[in-house]
Amino acid sequence: MQTMAIQIQDDYVNDFISYVNNHSDSITITKDKNLEHDPYFYERQKELHQIKNNIDNGKVQMIENDEFWDDIDSFVKTLQK
Fold first, then answer.
1. Is residue 81 a contact partner of residue 74, using CB atoms and an 8 Å limit?
2. Counting Cβ atoms within 10 Å, is residue 41 exposed (0-12), middle (13-18) or buried (19+)?
3. Which DSSP letter does residue 10 get?
4. 59-72 pLDDT, tens per residue?
5. Is the dihedral of CA 22, 23, 28, 30 positive or negative?
6. From the centroid of its chain, how far is CA 43?
7. 38: three-class secondary structure by DSSP
């Protein structure tokens, strides 16, 4: 069995559902909850995995939480002058 994502033109949805119903022994449709909540879920997931890999292999350096907020505080002070 193979799983794949498909896109269906709005005006063809009813015809597609009819086709699936006529071939229901070979086709199962399930909704992907990840895509229901975020249509770009898998693209974001891939990007986050790449960021994590870049951190793990040293291409990108993370800063500590305190350092981040110190930088933000300094930046805000420059805006207030």
1. no
2. middle
3. G
4. 999 899 999 999 99
5. negative
6. 4
7. coil
Tokens of 74: 């300094």
In contact, 35 and 29? CB cutoff 8 Å: no
Q: How far is CA 35 from CA 2, 13, 39, 42, in A?
A: 18, 18, 5, 8
Q: Is 27 helix (H, G, I), strand (E, B) or coil?
A: coil
pLDDT tens readout for residues 17-62: 899 889 888 888 888 888 889 989 999 999 999 999 999 999 999 8
Whether this prediction's pTM lies above 0.70 is answered by: no
Q: Which residue has the tokens 């770009």?
A: 40
Half-sphere exposure of 67 (CA within 13 A, CB side): 4
Q: What are the φ/ψ torsions at residue 22 (nearest 5 degrees)?
A: -75, -15
First and final CA of the chain: distance in angstroms? Answer: 64
